[in-house]
Amino acid sequence: MASANVYILVVTYRLPRTTIECITSLLPLCSDRVRILVIENGSPDNSFEVIREGLEAYVPAAGLKTASADALDASVFAEGFRVLLVRNEVNIGFGRAINVLARFVAANTDDGYFWILNNDVIIEPSSLNALVETLARRDDLCLVGSLIAEMEQPTVVQEAGGKLVRSIGWCRPLHRGEAIKAVQARGPVLPTDWVCGASALVSIRDFMRVGGFCESFFVYWGDVDLSYLLRAATGRQCAVVTASVIRHISRAVDWTVADRVRTFDLAGVVIFYRRWFPWLWPFVLLVRGLTYIACDLWKGGGASGRLLKDPKATIEALGLRREEPRVAFRTGKSRLT
């Protein structure tokens, strides 16, 4: 049982059965201190109804509440809930949807933590306590994440934080493919450049201090940006807590053909670099574009060449705009590197 107030924030888009499995794995944690908030992010099908009906089989009527994102106010919070299912009319992206839930909670209390989760994870029973106890005990940390295991191979690490290879714009997952026990043997807390948004715990005060997720990111790179914001604002660091283990579905995305994935990735890269390393973003975009072209040539053709033919038009097509960091780099030992 968590020793502090924790608000678990989950965004879902389609995949209602997967979401139900995720939420039911969280239900044993529910108490007066731990509440679950799920926002259905404008799926074009009946995902909201499927999730609601699925949860009704597990959550008592008094504990399950539903609301529209436009109708979230103090009365909804005051009524009390174990699980709050929120309907969004349109897909506004991961970070912005998390912010909707976070602002609703923060308008009513700033005591406790946000546990941000993907909807395609299954948690281990002790995952939350390990995160809360570590963040409460360590005054040198601002954001902690879980050791993420493969759903199909729960003894194998999918990701344990990441390292930003700044020169080429690569977020390199750490310890991928290693045995869980081998990574846990490295220590209880492992420092990392950034914490994956699949499982991230942050205090409500710190999250709201930096304004939450930057809403220019739709899918990718938002969690990296949040990690950098928190590190810069607090002078503290990010880490993975190895006693906290979650299982995450591994979706094999074919980056050589998935143009939509590429678009979100390129948008995230450029937005992130223009915010934090503005002198590097043209080079990083060039490297990414050349990589995609090479993939297309290897696959026998593709449309990636248009990404480099007219960089200005590409940036405009991606809907990018210049975003400045909302917090300045700190100096001394806490400076980001």
TrEMBL record:
Residues 8-147 form the Glycosyltransferase 2-like domain. One of its GO terms (molecular function) is glycosyltransferase activity. Gene3D superfamilies: Spore Coat Polysaccharide Biosynthesis Protein SpsA, Chain A. It holds the Pfam family Glycos_transf_2. Keywords: Glycosyltransferase, Transferase. SUPFAM superfamilies: Nucleotide-diphospho-sugar transferases (SSF53448). It comes from the Bacteria. Belongs to the glycosyltransferase 2 family. This is Glycosyltransferase. It comes from Candidatus Defluviicoccus seviourii. The lineage of its organism: Bacteria, Pseudomonadati, Pseudomonadota, Alphaproteobacteria, Rhodospirillales.
